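Exercise 7b. Backbone tokens:
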């Protein structure tokens, strides 16, 4: 299903920058969020490190770390008080000593670069993928259907093609 790499491999020249930024995202995730957020923030950081040229090569590490958490939070509704975990956008900016506008600008830069959006199946936390209907929508003979309710052979083909995260009930 995922069109992105979950690898944390980065070019040698970006390794120190990756380590610097992920120290900050890991610390924030462990204090306010959870291991799942820490992992997906590391994956986003690695993805940005692999871009040519990498946007992470310039600017402050704290600004990038803050933007990374905000971008992932935007996809996964982190700012919605009904969700667990929940952290407000202003809390994230404050934790990094940044203004909300600076954080949001970095977040938007990343989301635009990678085509990220709310409920983006590629950047949804694994624990939320079952509830993300966009992860299950496929087109069959020109009709969009929820693959969870499709016949098993269609599910198997959709999984083989990487269109759905797993075969329901398997």
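Sequence design result:
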């Amino acid at each position: 299903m995922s069109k992105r790499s979950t690898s944390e491999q980065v070019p040698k020249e970006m390794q120190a920058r990756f380590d610097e930024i992920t120290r900050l995202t890991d610390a924030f995730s462990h204090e306010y969020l959870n291991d799942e957020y820490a992992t997906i923030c590391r994956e986003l950081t690695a993805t940005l490190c692999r871009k040519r040229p990498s946007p992470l090569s310039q600017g402050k590490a704290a600004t990038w770390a803050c933007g990374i958490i905000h971008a992932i939070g935007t996809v996964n509704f982190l700012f919605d008080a009904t969700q667990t975990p929940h952290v407000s956008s202003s809390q994230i900016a404050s934790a990094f000593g940044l203004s909300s506008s600076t954080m949001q600008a970095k977040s938007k830069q990343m989301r635009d670069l990678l085509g990220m959006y709310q409920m983006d199946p590629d950047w949804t936390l694994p624990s939320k993928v079952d509830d993300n209907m966009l992860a299950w929508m496929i087109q069959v003979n020109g009709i969009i259907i929820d693959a969870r309710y499709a016949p098993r052979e269609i599910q198997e083909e959709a999984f083989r093609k990487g269109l759905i995260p797993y075969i329901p009930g398997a």
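Instructor comment: Residues 136-160 form one domain. The helical segments are 15-32, 35-50, 61-75, 89-95, 100-114, 152-160.
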